Amino acid sequence: MSERLVELAKRRGFFFPASGAYGGTAGFYVYGPQGAALKRNLIESWREQFLTREGHMEIDAPTVMPESVFEASGHLDTFDDMIIECPSCGESHRADHLVEDETDIDDAEGMSLSAVEELIAERDLHCPNCGESLAGIEVSAFNLMFGTNIGPGSASPGYLRPETAQGIFVEFPQLKEYARNQLPFGVGQIGRAYRNEISPRRSIVRVRELTQAELEHFIDPETDEPPLAGVADVELPLYSAAAQAEDGDVEMMTVATAVETGIVNDWIAYYLGVAAEWYERVGVDMSRFRYRQHQPEELSHYSSDCWDAEVEVDGNWIELTGFAYRGSYDLSKHDEYADEEFTVFKQYDEPITVERPTVDPDMSVLGPEFGSEASDIAEELQRLAETDPDAFEGETVTVTVDGDDRTIPIDVTGFAVEEVTESGEHITPHVIEPSFGIDRLIYTVLAHAYREDEIDDEPRTSLALQPDIAPTTVGVFPLMTKDGMAERAQEIVERLRSDGFTVNYDDSGAIGRRYRRQDEIGTPYCITVDYESLEDDTVTVRERDSTEQDRVAVDELRSHLRSRIVT
Ligand code: ATP
Known about the structure:
The protein is α+β, with helices and mostly antiparallel strands. Helices cover 31% and strands 31% of the residues. It has 18 helices and 28 strands. The structure holds adenosine-5'-triphosphate. Adenosine-5'-triphosphate is lined by residues 163, 195, 197, 206-207, 210, 212, 319-322, 435, 437, 439-440.
């Protein structure tokens, strides 16, 4: 089916490979007129569901960021995939995908480089391009970020963002001000991200320039709880890590039960519920949908729970969205590397009195061996005294100055214990991140809507898209262009457009062909102006899936369509 869908996508203007006139570049796609409209509708629906209804903020940050950001985030060191280069034909392949494609192993992504290397040798895998044996091949790590230089010369290296999330984390010190320093709050971002994928494939499922819609929900893990009541009864198809380990099945359970049994982190469960409702609404076939929990070895070290929304398309399961409990990892890293504070001040209900170590600001207590660093050391000691008083309990205390650890005997720090009143403390919020890929969603919505049937003994292809997601909502045709039918149809087009409908006017070819064209782009309703229309001001309104036709007065078209399109 995928070839027929991709062919339809190109022919009807949903998506097609970019720069075709110059031979094309793998992994880059253009959304044509129908695709761009479908994408816009899906994004708008996402924004409504995950930002507007939740009361979250939205930002729009740059796609190029300096190297320092990705040093802090860890992308520079670890945003890698496994690569092998065939010694015979020189073609590069993603090693874990090769193992998954050629063996019974479903998930090789979490394996080590050497484990994959061994498997390639053991199973005697061959190059998919030239067929030569890959035994003895070396698997290495390939960083997926696209690098660039900011400004002339190479003094300021930068990278195209590989995800939209960093733009939110990096701007946290400013964003928390907009949230009046109060947790919880959420910030979303929708935009392009770039990954230099080793082997882009399955058209828009794995591309090098993608669109993501990500939400970072910042919480105080000690006090904030998700508003579970609103989604408690939503049914979730859960494929837990335990079920995967035992070759078990997907289990249906409500959000409330999933939280009760402790199988899912409660914040993640909340978003799984919100997302399941939304996926169904935008046209994902929920009988081909599941939430798959990451196995312990797949989890990043900082993530305590992670689930992927997966859909079955063309007989394969693909990841649509990742839902991760990221703890305080991202903000702590930026706090460590950047100059600003990535914490929130949490006010206590009542001020408290505590004993705090303080450091003599007069650094004469430090011996001459500390030289010009004495005041920096004092400053660090004082910072440590405020953030981690327990560090002063031993005989020495260690601080980092200019990247080097300095161990200072307690008795020379001018250390004293003082009683202080504190009104609150600085905490690093925890983050829940639902991370949606829009391109894969577009592919899924199209694939799940794709139908082949017969109408009046003729084969028909149609897209059963949700009416409010379909790129075109109404097709308007004059039966013939003579006797004023075309003019009347044009008047109806203008009226419907001013009412906010996306309308496609078509007067070329037989009426049956015009219906077929609209069916193929998923237009839910078609209006035909015929001779009767000229007499009684009514038109036929044909529904795409049933092909049933109603006779509707032109004056009532707007309410007729609205009641059927707006969900
Ligand atoms: P995969 O394992 O398939 O490479 P990922 O786990 O690296 O994906 P995330 O980093 O979690 O993906 O990104 C979040 C979402 O962005 C994914 O669920 C997916 O929908 C989308 N996405 C990621 N990489 C691509 C890509 N190369 N092309 C299209 N969409 C992508």
